[in-house]
Amino acid sequence: MPANKLSLKLGYFFLLLMAMFLFIAYRATMNAFLAVKVLKFPVNSYQDLLEASEDIIVWDGTMWEQQYTLAPPGSLFETIYKAKIQGKPAISDFGGFDKALGVVANGDAFYSGSTQRLMESKYYPCSVVAVPELVQV
């Protein structure tokens, strides 16, 4: 009889232990779903960019500006240029990239250009390192 009571106690112990682990995993999963904000990009295409309420900030005289200014008549890029860029302030009008980046960070505009200057900014939270073994020319 004592052996049966011991095995019954061990069975209850392992059953309660597994129930506790399942409850902890369930609770952690629910906390993660509530704590993590789902990121949805405001723009997924040039059409979305055209329909957005924010303007576009570009570097003056760069290929990024020329992709809009030299676009064929009636193209989507020309439409974006006329609606979002033409007559609006460029990066030089803000007094530099760092000040223009503040406007972008506030959600008042989109930045269209090379990310190299963005990564070189003191406001970019990461350091950028080139790894020669991974770069193929």
What does this structure look like?
- The chain has 137 residues and is mostly helical.
- It folds into 2 domains: 39 residues; 75 residues, no CATH class.
- The chain contains 6 helices and 2 strands.
- It has a two-stranded parallel ribbon with strand order 1-2.
- It starts with a helix and ends in a 17-residue tail after the last helix.
Helix-strand layout with pairing:
Elements: H1 2-35, H2 46-51, E1 55-57, H3 63-69, H4 76-85, H5 97-105, E2 109-111, H6 115-120
Parallel strand pairs: 1-2
Beta fraction: under 5%
Shape field: rod-shaped
End-to-end Cα distance: 78 Å
Taken together, the total number of domains comes to 2
Count every helix, treating DSSP H or I runs of 4 or more residues as helices. Answer: 6
Instruction: Identify the strand order in the major beta sheet.
Output: 1-2
Biggest β-sheet: count, sense, barrel? 2 strands, parallel
Mean pLDDT across every amino acid position: 76
Structural class: mainly alpha
From the alpha carbons, calculate the radius of gyration and give it in angstroms. 28 Å
Helix amount: 40-55%
Number of strands: 2
Order of helices and strands: HHEHHHEH
- Residue windows where pLDDT falls under 50 for at least 5 positions: none
